[in-house]
Amino acid sequence: MRRHNFEKLQIWIESMELIDENYHFTASLPDFEKFGLRTQMNRCAVSIASNISEGTSKRSTKHFVTFLEHSLGSAFEWETQLNICYRQGFVEEKRFEELESKINIIQKKISKFIDSLGN
User: Fold this and answer.
1) What is the structure's pLDDT at 119?
2) Contact residues for 88 (Cβ-Cβ < 8 A; gap 6+)
3) 34-76: per-residue pLDDT in tens?
4) Does residue 58 fall inside a structural domain?
5) Is 53 strand, coil or helix?
6) In whole angstroms, what is the distance from residue 95 CA to residue 108 CA?
7) How much of the chain is in helix, strand and coil states, percent to nearest 5?
8) What is the CATH number for 25?
9) What is the mean pLDDT of residues 73-102?
10) What's the half-sphere exposure (Cβ side, CA atoms, 13 Å) at 119?
11) Could you tell me which of 96, 102, 92, 106 has the C-alpha nearest to residue 49?
12) What confidence score (pLDDT) does residue 2 get?
């Protein structure tokens, strides 16, 4: 397997951009969510990009795909937490739709990348 440079992968770049947006967003959550949704969303956002980069260090495509699948799982988890924020009234509909669109794009790109690796 040829190793990928994670910094050149579009899925990693967009995941890093999501981290920036996520931290800005979670800073606006209520104080009582400091150790709840805020912490969990931050961890998920970081996990998306981190698993992509860690996966690039693996020697086999199978192991790389495993890390990409973990990344994809974190992306779906983050989307669920965003939905919770919306349902609880922590985010306005327009901002919710913008963030949901971004995470959906990342999810699709990670899925297509996994498919392109043939596993």
Assistant:
1) 57
2) none
3) 989 999 999 999 999 999 999 999 989 999 999 999 999 999 9
4) yes
5) helix
6) 20
7) 80, 0, 20
8) 1.20.1440.60
9) 98
10) 16
11) 106
12) 66
